[in-house]
Amino acid sequence: MSTLSPNHSYSGSLPYKQVINAHQQALAYARQRLQPQFPNITDEQWESLFVQYQPTLWVESDTPGAMVEEQALERFANWIHLSLDTDLGEDAVPLYSHDAYYLARNDVWYTQQAKRLLASDPKLTRPESVEGMRALIYRLAAGNSIAERIYSTYENLVAKK
User: Fold this and answer.
1) Are 57 and 26 in contact (CB under 8 A)?
2) Of 1, 2, 68, 147, whose CB has the highest number of CB atoms within 10 Å?
């Protein structure tokens, strides 16, 4: 399998018809996966959004199959949401990445730790509570490279709007 991306060079040559077929197959794949999230997007809008975003495509070298790679599909879904300022609603099919799970897990852990501290010492006056708060603050102050990367990506997308 190889990738076709406007941002990466491709070392082989592909006939135009194969590139067009790959584009159409990848668009169909992306639309099938994302249709539940964006049910009101027309055929023309899908084509336009796909061409504007230009996601990285995975192309099978032995077969004519093509699709959008998973991380690119997640970024494309988020980009569509921001570009169209859509309300995903309750029936949306979430496309969460491993990064989203990691960040959610950390946030839940921090919340649980804070609740435990408050439950055991509501005024937070005991020495062990102070140590627990200090540990939480140090962990938060250390930052998180995944959170910073995602924040930076979205800040750049919002700034371009």
Assistant:
1) yes
2) 68
Strands 66-68 vs 57-59: parallel, antiparallel or unpaired? antiparallel
Whether pTM > 0.90 for this model: the answer is no
* Cα(137)–Cα(126) distance, integer angstroms: 17
How far is residue 136's CA from residue 126's CA, in Å, rounded to a whole number?
16
The 10s digit of each residue's pLDDT in 105-151 is 889 999 999 999 999 999 999 999 999 999 999 999 999 888 888 78
Task: Name the nearest CA neighbour of 156 among 71, 72, 78.
Answer: 78
Check if the beta carbon of residue 59 is closer than 8 Å to that of residue 2: yes
Q: How far apart are the first and last CA of the chain?
A: 34
What does the alpha-carbon distance between residue 19 and residue 17 come to, in Å, rounded to a whole number?
5
